[in-house]
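User: Here's a chain of 307 residues. Predict its fold as tokens.
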Amino acid sequence: MTKFNDTLIIGLDHGYGNMKTANHCFPTGIIPGENASSFAQNILEYGGKSYVIGEGHKDFIPDKVKDDDFYHLSLAGIAEELDGFGLSEANIHIAAGLPLTWTGAQKDAFAAYLTKNTDVTFTYRKKQYTIKIAGVSIFPQGYAAVAPYITKLKGVQMLVDIGNGTMNVMTLVNGKPQFNKMFTEKFGTHLCALSIKEAFSRKTQRELNDAFIEEMLRTGSADLDEDDLAIVEAAVRDYVSQIYGKLHEYGYDEKTMRLQVVGGGGCLLEHFGHLRDGWDFVMKDICAAAKGYEYLAETKLKSREKA
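Assistant: Prediction complete.
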């Protein structure tokens, strides 16, 4: 969260695996309150209805405004940030992002979606919040994560943002984006998870619990016996190999280009890829994009104030 005059800039990274703010992260899951278990704590109450945040799984859809899920998840993210600073009322400027090459076509609709209600009162975890949405800024995913230090990136770099739903790729020359070399693929880590499940079921006739897959995607290993782990690792290595194949299609050259890897899929390249010490870099801060959105929004607002 960043303070600008009388407004708080709150970065929201609307991932399909996790929702991230500058200081918080929670699963991108939401179910109706009537389906809540007696142990549910992250309950959002808004518009006369209740929702359990962090439960269930949000399926990938290219257009995030098709339902109200990301709107309600946004309110929860704002509450997480405000509560962390002991606040319950504030003027908010939302800073968010969209896949790299989809930003131009979708940003107006997404901005309208996030600001469809200017004055909002809701309850999260039994605490009431009253906010005024003063504005919104939408930026490209991936780029935002490196924006705070982009001027320090020398030479030719390939920025790779691997999320749950999409993979975004951008070439940078001395920190300057090459706009004719920007790509978005529906090739996020959820495809890797599906491949793991399919391979495991085919070879063992058993079902692998999602917890083991999440552990593998997050840490590069899982608490499985040797034979089962070998099946999972083989599926992951195949996915990573396909990532490198796509990067080469987009012009990646190991001898002249460095990799800047951000997003949740970065750990897969770290553990199963061909990253070079002192040459390639994996951003391990899962909240980096949300922080980058805040940085870019603050820069934009300051520039507008000076104009």
